């Protein structure tokens, strides 16, 4: 490995780390790109979901034990791939893995005795702790015969990702992250391997940044160390015109503006965590999204340049709740919305979309962010019912059509094309105009994927 002046942070998602072969592919990407100085890893695919199940309030001892066994087997399979022929080495690695498994068992037992969000985050952090340990072992093995190799250092992300104490969706302390990164990392001499998703509050408790938060961790580290580039390696060759898992005609997009990518991420394109782009935009870091399965296939580059007008992509976010508040008192009255929002703020509920008519206001909520199982907390409903009728509808999906909707520069407006293609569906709510970059609407969850596929095919031909 030769010395380089530019610094890249590379993040590998769980889909890229699901087994031994996948980890080797990622390790080779790192070895072949000398500018990569920090590697940020998610948990192997499926592990965080298992950990989330393990932290459910009603989990029984038997189910907890099965879940922990499943997690353990994913790790031991990776270790088995690594040291197929070397029993002593395999025993050493398995010993480390089993120690972590015991720690996990202990934390899970404590949680079943007394539930706390602090302990939930501690448990959720194990996925990344396993994967970063195994990945470091794989890198070390692959580099064992290389002469001019970098000094590999695995470090605990909690040393630098300092956050507040909002367990489950902790907010980063940017100043502390910068300070700690500069104190702890010896760049560009060493090659660091660390965990995404995981942080630590000022009391030394483990926190997590929210599901999918490893992208955000990588962007925060990139900003803190003044990196030039951030690479997000996943299982698809970049950001597509829609989710390629169900829109089979979706195409990769070579370049996308930060604004468009931010809208796409916010409105459900799982490929990027919505907060990832803030540090990148703030600190002008080049962002690349590519496939670790096929690194040479290229991917998407995010740029500050505005893109051409028209629709660029369609995103889908499931599990949305629509809340309609109506009251004849709204007519020609002032202060109604202020009262509604004061109550929602009190319950820390964050509204996504909003539309109003003379006597009603419709609001949408993302179930992940605060509204559990599609229902507002009963106390909140009661407070709202003091001055308006409340109707709640679940099992909805939000479709977001992202692009540059600029009627001044289009001969046939893409919005017009979109509205034509919506004619066949029952739309529950539509939002257009707040941003030039998106038009959003709600449809029943049962038809949402069909709606996205059909609109995609009509717009992109
Ligand atoms: N517009 C889009 N472009 C690319 N992928 C998308 C898009 N929308 C949703 N996805 C989904 O995001 C997935 C990658 O995100 P995720 O599963 O979280 O991967 P990782 O484990 O790498 O973080 C893809 O497999 C794809 O199904
Ligand atoms: N492992 C965490 C964090 C993460 O970002 O994962 P991924 O990169 O695989 O989406 C999660 O599943 O939420």
TrEMBL record:
Q: Give the record's GO CC terms.
A: cytosol
> What Pfam families does this protein's entry cite?
AA_kinase, ACT_9
The metabolic or biological pathway listed in the UniProt record of this protein is:
Amino-acid biosynthesis; L-lysine biosynthesis via DAP pathway; (S)-tetrahydrodipicolinate from L-aspartate: step 1/4; Amino-acid biosynthesis; L-methionine biosynthesis via de novo pathway; L-homoserine from L-aspartate: step 1/3; Amino-acid biosynthesis; L-threonine biosynthesis; L-threonine from L-aspartate: step 1/5
Query: SUPFAM superfamilies given for it?
Result: ACT-like, Carbamate kinase-like
Catalytic activity reads:
L-aspartate + ATP = 4-phospho-L-aspartate + ADP
Q: GO molecular function: any one?
A: ATP binding
Domain Aspartokinase ACT: where?
400-458
Q: Does the keyword Kinase apply?
A: yes
What's one GO BP annotation on this UniProt entry? lysine biosynthetic process via diaminopimelate
- Ranges for domain Aspartate/glutamate/uridylate kinase: 7-290
Instruction: Please verify whether the record's keywords include Lipid biosynthesis.
Output: no
What Enzyme Commission number does this protein have? 2.7.2.4
Classification via Gene3D superfamilies = 3.30.70.260, Acetylglutamate kinase-like, Aspartokinase, catalytic domain
Protein residues bound to ATP: 234-235, 240, 245, 270-271
**Superkingdom of the source species:** Bacteria
Q: Which family does it belong to?
A: Belongs to the aspartokinase family.
Cross-referenced PANTHER family:
ASPARTATE KINASE, ASPARTOKINASE
Name of the protein described by the UniProt record: Aspartokinase
């Amino acid at each position: 490995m030769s010395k380089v002046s530019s610094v890249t942070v590379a993040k590998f998602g769980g889909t890229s780390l699901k087994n031994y072969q996948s980890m080797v592919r990622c390790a080779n990407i790192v070895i072949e790109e000398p500018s990569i100085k920090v590697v940020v890893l998610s948990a192997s695919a499926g592990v965080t979901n298992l950990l989330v199940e393990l932290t459910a309030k009603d989990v029984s001892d038997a189910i907890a034990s099965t879940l922990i066994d499943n997690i353990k087997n994913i790790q031991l399979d990776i270790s088995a791939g690594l040291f197929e022929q070397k029993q002593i080495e395999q025993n050493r690695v398995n010993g480390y893995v089993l120690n972590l498994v015991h720690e996990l068992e202990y934390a899970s037992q404590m949680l079943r005795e007394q539930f706390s969000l602090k302990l939930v985050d501690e448990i959720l952090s194990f996925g990344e702790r396993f994967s970063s340990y195994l990945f470091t072992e794989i890198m070390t093995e692959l580099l064992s015969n290389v002469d001019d190799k970098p000094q590999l250092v695995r470090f605990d992300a909690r040393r630098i990702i300092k956050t507040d104490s909002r367990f489950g969706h902790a907010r980063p302390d940017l100043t502390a992250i910068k300070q700690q990164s500069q104190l702890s990392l010896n760049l560009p001499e060493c090659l660091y391997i660390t965990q995404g998703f995981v942080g630590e509050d000022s009391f030394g408790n483990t926190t997590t940044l929210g599901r999918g938060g490893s992208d955000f961790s990588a962007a925060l580290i990139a900003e803190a160390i003044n990196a030039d580039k951030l690479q997000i390696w996943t299982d698809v060759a970049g950001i597509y015109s829609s989710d390629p898992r169900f829109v089979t005609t979706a195409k990769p997009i070579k370049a996308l503006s930060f604004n468009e990518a931010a809208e796409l991420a916010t409105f459900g394109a799982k490929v990027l965590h919505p907060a990832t782009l803030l540090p990148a935009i703030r600190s002008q870091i080049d962002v690349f999204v590519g496939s670790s399965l096929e690194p040479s296939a290229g991917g998407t580059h995010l740029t500050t340049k505005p893109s051409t007008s028209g629709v660029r992509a369609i995103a889908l976010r499931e599990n949305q709740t629509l809340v309609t508040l109506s009251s004849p008192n709204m007519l020609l009255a002032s202060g109604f919305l202020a009262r509604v929002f004061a109550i929602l703020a009190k319950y820390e509920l964050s509204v996504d979309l909003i539309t109003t008519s003379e006597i009603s206001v419709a609001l949408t909520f993302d179930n992940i962010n605060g509204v559990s199982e599609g229902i507002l907390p009963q106390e909140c409903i009661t407070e709202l019912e003091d001055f308006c009728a409340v109707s709640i509808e679940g099992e909805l999906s939000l479709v977001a059509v992202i692009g540059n909707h600029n009627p001044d520069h289009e001969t046939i407006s893409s919005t017009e094309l979109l509205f034509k293609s919506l004619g066949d569906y029952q739309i529950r709510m539509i939002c257009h105009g707040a941003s030039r970059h998106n038009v959003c609407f709600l449809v029943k969850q049962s038809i949402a994927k069909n709606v996205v596929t059909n609109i995609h095919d009509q717009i992109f031909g």
